[in-house]
């Protein structure tokens, strides 16, 4: 059966950012690589860029983010920042749920932020702008940004910016950092973990550690046309947020590319109510995995039609005070790096995005869920519907 069309549970997601994730995964499938990235991280960063834009560039950003105004984007970003800061006591290491999100801004000393933009940066995005010297200390700024990201992600994201990624032409660097740590509502029994076969897209079979739960334990499950969905909730404790991890398993061992294409044709798929039901799963196995992923997103973004920010008519005049260079800024690169670990205890994940600006001139079989071939996943907060992390596992043994 088809997954029934349901009303989206939130308007806080960007279909553009979710479609971009689909574009990236299609490229990674050809390489046989695992992938994880954060649509939320990209959405907030593009919204911040829009807040400093004008003219056709602003119009294009609003169109791709499906928003009517900067005020609308700021309102959504404010809700996201508030959601990720609720009950997030970073010193509380025994908490069942830890979620944090931080934004940062580094500005070359030859520029001054416009008061209106600085107000948005501080008030909506809770970020502080810092004056730096790219002309003489670019390497030092790279170290500073990397250290900030590493600290904000509990050490999971290291060296977001590579050596030489900033130079004397750099004018602005934005960065955000998302951290998530959740314990399963019902933990897997480590004594039951054992190696099983995992089928790769190229037909190879490898041995991978699989986790399982008590026999005949009921799970949120759904079987649809060509794929199955499984949802596993995280503990909430006193937290009002409700996070779950979803697994999307194609029926065919080599069905992942078709499943991605199916989702890509419906950008709202991941934000809908799936209509899952409680089901006994006599066969229930999930691979344990841990990996990181990084890529430079500018080419993918441009392929999807968002091109003006990367041109000499970038129109970022709302960011900085008028100067000989202020009308010649354009977006150069968009660096993104993510990490995820899924084990018997729960999930730990992190992501960071850093754009840099430079000066310019049927019949149902017996229910089961055995993820023994490439599959997709996401982590979603259920009350808001925000997709925090998403993408695919092609080989659970690959670390990076």
UniProtKB/TrEMBL annotation:
Residues 23-396 form the Serpin domain. Pfam families: Serpin. Belongs to the serpin family. InterPro entries: Serpin_CS, Serpin_dom, Serpin_fam, Serpin_sf, Serpin_sf_1, Serpin_sf_2. This is Serpin-ZX like. CDD domains: serpinP_plants. GO terms for molecular function: serine-type endopeptidase inhibitor activity. The lineage of its organism: Eukaryota, Viridiplantae, Streptophyta, Embryophyta, Tracheophyta. GO terms for cellular component: extracellular space. PANTHER family: SERINE PROTEASE INHIBITOR, SERPIN, SERPIN DOMAIN-CONTAINING PROTEIN.
């Amino acid at each position: 059966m088809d997954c029934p069309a349901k009303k989206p549970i939130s308007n806080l997601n960007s279909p553009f950012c979710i479609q971009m994730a689909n574009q990236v995964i299609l490229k990674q499938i050809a390489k046989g690589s695992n992938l994880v990235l954060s649509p939320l991280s990209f959405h907030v960063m593009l919204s911040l860029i829009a807040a400093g834009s004008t003219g056709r560039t602003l119009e294009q950003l609003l169109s791709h983010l499906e928003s009517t105004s900067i005020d609308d984007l700021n309102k959504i970003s404010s809700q996201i920042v508030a959601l990720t800061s609720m009950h997030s006591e970073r010193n509380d290491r025994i908490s069942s749920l830890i979620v944090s999100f931080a934004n940062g801004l580094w500005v070359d000393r030859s520029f001054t932020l416009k008061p209106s933009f600085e107000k948005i940066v501080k008030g909506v995005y809770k970020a502080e702008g810092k004056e730096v010297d790219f002309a003489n200390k670019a390497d030092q700024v790279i170290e500073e940004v990397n250290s900030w990201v590493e600290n904000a992600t509990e050490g999971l994201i290291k060296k977001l910016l590579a050596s030489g990624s900033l130079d004397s032409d750099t004018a602005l660097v934005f960065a955000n950092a998302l951290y998530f740590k959740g314990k399963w509502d019902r933990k897997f029994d480590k004594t039951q973990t054992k190696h099983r076969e995992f089928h790769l897209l190229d037909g190879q079979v490898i041995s991978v550690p699989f986790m399982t739960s008590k026999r005949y334990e009921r799970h949120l499950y759904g079987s649809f046309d060509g794929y199955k969905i499984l949802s596993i909730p995280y503990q909430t404790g006193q937290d009002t947020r409700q996070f779950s991890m979803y697994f999307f398993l194609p029926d065919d061992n080599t069905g992942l590319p078709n499943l991605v294409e199916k989702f890509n044709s419906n950008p709202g798929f991941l934000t809908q109510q799936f209509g899952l039901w409680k089901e006994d799963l006599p066969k229930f196995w999930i691979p344990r995995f841990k990996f990181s992923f990084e890529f430079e997103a500018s080419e993918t973004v441009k392929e999807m039609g968002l091109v003006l920010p990367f041109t000499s008519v970038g129109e970022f005049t709302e960011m900085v005070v008028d100067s000989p260079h202020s009308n010649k800024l354009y977006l150069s690169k968009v660096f993104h790096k993510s990490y995820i670990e899924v084990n018997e205890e729960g999930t730990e994940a992190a992501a960071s995005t850093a754009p840099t600006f430079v000066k310019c001139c049927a019949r149902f079989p017996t229910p089961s869920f055995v993820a023994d071939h490439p599959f997709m996943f996401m982590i979603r907060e259920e009350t808001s519907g925000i997709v925090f992390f998403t993408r695919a596992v092609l080989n659970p043994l690959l670390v990076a």
